[in-house]
Amino acid sequence: MSSFNSNNNDKENLPLLQARKPNNYGRQVLVSVDSNFYNTTLPDLLLHHFKNSPDLSTKESLLNHSITINHRSRLLNWMIEVTSSFGCSDNVFFLTVRLMDTYLKLTEGLENNDLHLIGVTCMFIASKFDEVTPLKLKVIHENILFSHHSEEEVRALEGRILEVLSFKVNIQTCLDTLGCLKSRYDENCSISNIARIVLYLVQFYYNAQDYDPRQQAVTAFIMAAFSERRIDVVRTILSDHDLIFPEIEEIMSKFYCGVEEFEKNFPDYKSPMLFLNFNILHQDGLPLFEFNNTQ
C-alpha cells in the first residue's frame, strides 16, 4: 500500500460538478418514465420536496482553511486504497469522508499538511463505529501513517474531533439512504451496486457537498435504475413524495457528467477503478459501468 505525501503541489483549478451544455440527461431520465406522468405528477411532487437539515450541511467545508480542493480529492483517492486494502466496509469510507468534511466545516485555519492526519483519524473513528473488528491504533500508526505521526497524536486528534462534533459520530451518510432504497426497490442489488460506484466518484468533486447525503443517494439510485433500464423503479421513486426534490433533474445531469468525465478530470486518480473493480464506459447512453469478474 502506498503512503500519502502531503507535500505534493496541487493544481488550483480542479474541475467541479457541472452539467455539460447541451446536456439533457436529467430530463431524459425523468421523461423516459412516461411523458404524461412527468408532466402531471412531478410538479405535485415538488410541493413535498425534501428539505435539507441545516446541521447536516458540509457545503464549502474548506472555506475557512488553506486546504486546496485537489488535496482533499487526492486524499480521498488514497483513502479508497487504504480502506480496500484493510478490508473495511464501504460504510467506513463514506463515514470517514462525512466526519472529515463536518470537522472541517466546524473549524478554521488548517493547512494541506494537516489533512492527512485528520483523514486517517476520522477513518480510525469510523472503523470503531462501523466495524466488528476495527482498525487498531498500532495498525494506524505503523501501516497507514507509516510512523509519520505518533499514536499519541492520533489519540489527541481523535479527542479533538469528537469534541468538535459533540461526540455525534452517527452522522448520516449517502450510504445510509442507499441502504434504505436498496431494501425497498432492489432485491438483487444490481441497481444499488451501480449507485454505490456513482457515489464513490462524485465524492471527489468538492461541490458535491452542495447536496445533502439523501439527495446524493436518491440521485445516484435513479441514475443506476435508469442505467439498468428499470423504468418501473424510476417511476416508483418519482411517485414517492418523501424522496423527490426540485433539484433532481439538475443534480442528475451534473452527476452524469461528473461520472462520464471522471478520468479526464482526475487522470491521476485510479483507486476507484482499481480497488472497486469497474471501468467507466465513455459513451452517451447506457450502461454507466462495466464490472470486472471479481465484482
UniProtKB/TrEMBL annotation:
Keyword Transferase on entry: no
Keyword annotations from UniProtKB, A to Z: Cyclin
The keyword Cytoplasm appears for this protein: no
Domain Cyclin-like: 77-163
Coiled coil regions in record: none
Pfam families to which the protein is assigned, alphabetical: Cyclin_N
Gene3D superfamilies, per database record: Cyclin-like
The family this protein is said to belong to: Belongs to the cyclin family.
Protein name as annotated: Cyclin-like domain-containing protein
Species in which this protein is naturally found: Blepharisma stoltei
